[in-house]
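Side project, low priority. Logging it here so it doesn't get lost.
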Amino acid sequence: MGIGGSGELSASERRTVEALEIVEVISGLVASEAPVRDGGGHRPVRYGDVAVLVPVRTGLEELLGAFDRAGIDVRLTESSLIYDSEQVREVIAVLRAVEERGTTVR
């Protein structure tokens, strides 16, 4: 794979691999039947409970193709303002903190 057989993936190949990994993680979550709150009780997680936020449209074709090949129906909603919402900023901050926690500082 990659240019010149170097073993490095092209940008398109990386997007395809990432899309497949996203679909795999979401499928695994749904298969695990992890509980989610629903009203006053709990129920198993469904695909409709999951949102995938992408900051740019690059790679969207690969992502939609991966969902399609997995037989997962998706709804595409566009909102340039979603990244400015307080809730999304908080989620991104938590994810960055988790990522940094796993980084070894030397």
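Brief comment: Residues 13 and 70 are 18 Å apart (CA to CA).
Revisit when time allows.
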